[in-house]
UniProtKB/TrEMBL annotation:
<dbReference type="GO" id="GO:0046417">
    <property type="term" value="P:chorismate metabolic process"/>
</dbReference>
<feature type="domain" description="Chorismate mutase">
    <location>
        <begin position="3"/>
        <end position="96"/>
    </location>
</feature>
<dbReference type="InterPro" id="IPR036979">
    <property type="entry name" value="CM_dom_sf"/>
</dbReference>
<dbReference type="Pfam" id="PF01817">
    <property type="entry name" value="CM_2"/>
</dbReference>
<protein>
    <recommendedName>
        <fullName>chorismate mutase</fullName>
        <ecNumber>5.4.99.5</ecNumber>
    </recommendedName>
</protein>
<dbReference type="GO" id="GO:0004106">
    <property type="term" value="F:chorismate mutase activity"/>
</dbReference>
<dbReference type="InterPro" id="IPR002701">
    <property type="entry name" value="CM_II_prokaryot"/>
</dbReference>
<dbReference type="InterPro" id="IPR036263">
    <property type="entry name" value="Chorismate_II_sf"/>
</dbReference>
Amino acid sequence: MQTQTPLSLADLRSEIDRIDEAMHRLLMERSAIIDRLVQVKRTAGAESGSAFRPAREADMMRRLVERHDGLLPLDTVESIWRVIIATFTYVQAPYSVHADLAVGEPAMRDSARFHFGFTVPFVPHMGARGVIDAVKGSKGDLGLIAAVAPGSGDPWWTALEAEGAPKIIARLPFVERADHPAGLPVFVVSHPIDDAAVREVRVYSLRVTGWSAAAGRGIPAFAEVVVAPDDALDGAALLASLPPGHAVDEVIAALTEAGAGVRAVAEVGSHAAIHKVGAET
Ligand SMILES: O=C(O)C(=O)C[C@]1(C(=O)O)C=C[C@@H](O)C=C1
């Protein structure tokens, strides 16, 4: 039997240097491909204000998480790839990330930095409407707004209702898990991206009259709903996310059945299906 001579520390360090150099060279090779991709997108007229392609990114992040194995924590690989992809998006067409910190600064800042890194400029706002206005006035900036009930009670999503207004185009993290280091669920808002939009989960703004606890309980379990009650008008504004295979009519019927009335409905965006994996072992 042949015995292997253990490698010395210096030998192992030169192996690490070889791998580091190879990874760096691969990243430089990736940037040359991105250069060619920009030309192809330009020729195909597939350029828009932002180079962010949520369907492609959701798919890449899912595959990364699925193939990952070994000692390196998943959080680390995921954050490395987020920085790679977000930065290559930035070098194609510079953009800023506007974030609503009203939900709590540390969680939102962590989400922005985890998903977009430090090269993409980060612009803090206090309130979701400021984020939406900034996106609206930009060429291709992205907005981050927490997908949780607004502490202010302001139904910010009504600002997405008009045709041509910004829309929800993604939800982060792309792959959810219980112990995610930047696990705050966040909507990404941008100018409407039409053909590039991924329409697995559809998001609707509903204006409801006769809002009550019973109406709240009547919302079907498949719908993920954020509620901003409006006591003065005995109503509520709802932001409802519907998974593949469900229609907004089902939510309207359930609300009506529970004694509420729906006086307006508008689609305010869509995103990739929520992909959940178990906690790391
Ligand atoms: O595939 C694209 O369209 C790209 O622009 C490339 C790339 C990437 O770096 O892999 C960057 C931005 C997109 O959001 C998706 C992927």
